[in-house]
Amino acid sequence: MENNIIYETLTNIVERIKLAPENTTIEQINDLNEVADRFKLSLYEMVIVAFIAIEDKEFNTEEIIDLIQSKIGIKSLFIKRLIRKLGKRNIIERERFSDKMSIALNETYLSAIESGDWKVVEELVPYGLYPFLRSIRHLIGGGFSYGHRMAMHFDEFSDSIDLLKTSSVSINQHLVCVKYVQKTFSHSSDQSLHISLFFNVLVKKVIYDSVVEIDEWMENTDRGTFEMREFINKHIKTNSWPPLKQGLVEIVGGGRMGESISIELTTRGVYELLSEFDDDKKKTLADAGFITVPHIDPKDIKAQQLIFPDSLNRQFEPLRRAMDPHIQKLISEAMGGKNGVLSALFYGLPGTGKTEFCYQMAREYDLPIMNIDVAAIQSKWVGDSEKNARMVFSNYKKLCRQTKKRAILLFNEADALFSRRVDAKSSVDQMNNSLKNIFLEGIEELDGIVFATTNLTSNLDAAFERRFLFKIKFDKTDLETQSRIWKLYFPDLDSEQCLEFARKYNLSPGQITNVRKKQIIETILYPDQGLFDTVNHVASFEKLNNDENAKVGF
Fold it and tell me: What's the Cα-to-Cα distance from 219 to each of 155, 160, 214, 545, rounded to whole Å?
């Protein structure tokens, strides 16, 4: 490389090392200190890079170790560790040929040397928040995709690296996130895990607009499963990890029933830890709509016309008006600035439209629904049910924050939850009572909207009754309402025929819906049969018991 000052300088360094008298220390090699500073490498790392860059041959690991060891007299184990560190920092790459591993400079570093421009070399280690976060992706695990990596056997470089001593960190000491890590984790046990997870959270947020899936992060570390689980149980699940405890990071998903935990920066974390970004960038990151809490999007709810008796519609009216955002604002002002909980309990016979009414309210007011399966919360493991119950309210708050809406928290068919508490005679009784108490407390303190449906018409726990502002009973529909529902689903039947079916079968709205679905199938199978006869035939088999006093439902 003619007239290339960098190549010439590295060549001179290599020649001086080869010709150096015995007992010459590495610090005595002319120009090595200055060049190492430009490359942001230690003196020994610079020697390895210089030999690989200048020697006109392909090295394998043992050859480079023998060459350097013979010239500067350091132990082979130390050189191996340096090579691994350089690999982890993506400065060198290794490719297997036959039974040997070839070592070469990373394309970026090789191009910088070939440019002959010291400024290009000095920019290899990025300065500033965004370049810094991009540069440390390959140091911290987490399953990121990097550029030119096909030739690199990453497991060869799996030894832990002290991130705080890397050149990327050393030239970015001014960054708030670096200062935070040095202050918070520098003396922690499992320091490397703390630092890896912390910077994973920042990298995922800034570069990928995503969250950290804890299981994925665990898989991409070089620690054992037991060690990682112990770290998660000790620091994450207990919310004792400093960034979690300080409100800079939050759990935004998972954590129950075997689900992987997801964590990300909070709005506070964005503004405090990424303060070097301008205001627009911080606002964009803080407002990033990455919704991680499972929910039902109101746009996915199909419009459904519901027919109820006039008496029931009159009970709905105050609730409907209270759902209006303008009315909610007035209510908040009247309560001294506190929104509080808007709660409604829908109880009564099954198949009367309780759940569908909740869905249609969500669709009407464009509110996401977080649907809770109480049975899924219960766990055979001691204490897990209580943790799962508390996670319900934590996730609800996150959903509201992520969607920027007062979501609907729906306890659907929660009969077991709303029944009266019993005297604890067993551990199961104790757990059930404990769950009820957690839900009672959570509903009481919630700032949002809670709907609950239950088939219980008696045996309701009085404490739950008090938690709901609106308590609306769905009675068995009268004949007039049933007739209107028959007409809704079968518009080709005349009013008299619809009234006849209402009198004859006395079905709930849910059962009439079933009749409609089965009629569609029957019509396809037997197209010559008339509508009235088909409906009459199907409806006659809807009830398992034609006793008029039997309970209706599915």
Answer: 13, 15, 9, 55
- In sequence order, the 6+-apart residues with CB closer than 8 A to the CB of 430 are 424
Name the residue with higher pLDDT: 376 or 193. Answer: 193
Q: Which residue has the tokens 């829908």?
A: 346
367 in Cβ contact with 448 (< 8 Å):
no
Structure tokens belonging to residue 182: 């040095």
Which tokens in the block code for residue 554? Answer: 């599915």
Q: Which two tokens stand for residue 299?
A: 């746009």
Average per-residue pLDDT in the chain?
Answer: 81
What is the model's pLDDT at position 288?
A: 57
**Of the candidates 38, 37, 53, 50, which has an alpha carbon nearest to the alpha carbon of residue 107?**
53
Backbone angles phi, psi at 414, to 5 degrees: -95, 50
* Strand order through the sheet with 262-265: 212-213, 262-265, 249-253
DSSP E strands in 466-522: the ranges are 470-474
Tens digit of each residue's pLDDT (9 = 90 or more) over 506-539? 999 999 999 999 999 999 999 988 999 999 999 9
Backbone angles phi, psi at 24, to 5 degrees: -70, 130
Three-state SS for 412? coil
Residue whose structure tokens are 């499972």: 294
| Predicted TM-score (pTM) of this structure | 0.53
State residue 256 phi and psi, 5-degree precision. Answer: -135, 155
Burial of 118 (0-12, 13-18, 19+ CB in 10 A): middle
Q: Does the pLDDT at position 548 exceed 80?
A: no
Q: How many CA atoms lie within 13 A of 101 on its CB side?
A: 19
Burial of 260 (0-12, 13-18, 19+ CB in 10 A): middle
| CA distance linking residue 405 with residue 403, whole number of Å | 5
Model confidence over 450-498: pLDDT tens digits? 999 988 767 777 888 888 999 999 988 899 999 999 999 999 999 999 9
